[in-house]
Amino acid sequence: MLRELILEAPGKLLMRTPRSESRPLQAHELRVSTLYGGICGSDLKVYEGHMAHAVYPVRPGHELLAVVTEVGDDATSFAPGDRVVIIPNTFCGECDQCRRGQTNICCNKQSLGINVPGGFADEWVVASKYAVPVPEAVPDRVAVLVEPFAVAVHAMQKVQICEGDEVLVSGCGTEGALCALVASARGAHVTVTDIQPDRLRWIHSILPNVHPITPDQVADDSFAVVVEAAGARASVESAFAAVAPGGIILGVGMAVEAAIPMQRFVRKEATLYGSIIYVYDDFAQALAWLNRDCELAAKLEACIGAEVSLDAFEEAYSHALSGKPGKALLKF
Ligand SMILES: [Zn+2]
Ligand SMILES: [Zn+2]
């Protein structure tokens, strides 16, 4: 019996037999069967009713590894049996941003599992332009993490990291950990900070080369790059103190607002970037990198905190909701 998860309303998550996915494929579509799904902070915001653009009922799931089961007439670069990761944010290809290649900020963007059906289902249909083939050597449990990893890959491309650069990552959730992973793989000397000691211990167990410190130990004017991944006002504001003169602050966290100390910012001639999700190339590059660097792939896989079968989905959500470090995975 085919299964899918449905979030009927905030807090009301259930499993059911899907209703509509056995329709014939359009030419550009693929039918896929999810193998693994990851649960992240935005899923929890939708679950808790804290995501302004969420619609209910919605099928959750945007961190997805799937296998192709059927191919539409025009999707001939794919074949049944191919493993694919899914780009879970749509892009129109026609707006100004899309035409500049910035499909991540498409003004017609929709997000799987938030305002269009996601991929926590045994069988579903996706346009082939959102499917990215997974190289054979990349294991399932690594491939399913490519979506959050691509966020970090995209963000870290805003800055040129050189060997030995001092990089501070503020906030050690999954996205902070992945930015630290990318920065240290590029040769930076990475310091991480978080208000939760268990997160610092967790990230240090995965990345023994990073230097974990508490927020009060962060020295002023010391970091060529500060990655703000906590999404908290205090973390944003302290980034302006921590950044070295001429340095860069990279915002990936989602604090609602914070005060910018303009004199400090201007006098340091610092740069502030925002970075949101990824484009197709970030997925392709992330997969190619993981394909040739097993050590990187192993560290990414080590970010998994729990793996639970789909039938026990409540356990996976409660792991994620507990705030325990490490990604919760659903195995289909
Ligand atoms: Zn996510
Ligand atoms: Zn667009």
From TrEMBL:
<dbReference type="Pfam" id="PF00107">
    <property type="entry name" value="ADH_zinc_N"/>
</dbReference>
<protein>
    <submittedName>
        <fullName>L-iditol 2-dehydrogenase</fullName>
    </submittedName>
</protein>
<dbReference type="InterPro" id="IPR036291">
    <property type="entry name" value="NAD(P)-bd_dom_sf"/>
</dbReference>
<dbReference type="InterPro" id="IPR020843">
    <property type="entry name" value="ER"/>
</dbReference>
<dbReference type="InterPro" id="IPR011032">
    <property type="entry name" value="GroES-like_sf"/>
</dbReference>
<keyword id="KW-0479">Metal-binding</keyword>
<keyword id="KW-0560">Oxidoreductase</keyword>
<dbReference type="InterPro" id="IPR013149">
    <property type="entry name" value="ADH-like_C"/>
</dbReference>
<feature type="domain" description="Enoyl reductase (ER)">
    <location>
        <begin position="8"/>
        <end position="330"/>
    </location>
</feature>
<keyword id="KW-0862">Zinc</keyword>
<dbReference type="InterPro" id="IPR013154">
    <property type="entry name" value="ADH-like_N"/>
</dbReference>
<dbReference type="GO" id="GO:0016491">
    <property type="term" value="F:oxidoreductase activity"/>
</dbReference>
<dbReference type="InterPro" id="IPR050129">
    <property type="entry name" value="Zn_alcohol_dh"/>
</dbReference>
<dbReference type="GO" id="GO:0046872">
    <property type="term" value="F:metal ion binding"/>
</dbReference>
<dbReference type="Pfam" id="PF08240">
    <property type="entry name" value="ADH_N"/>
</dbReference>
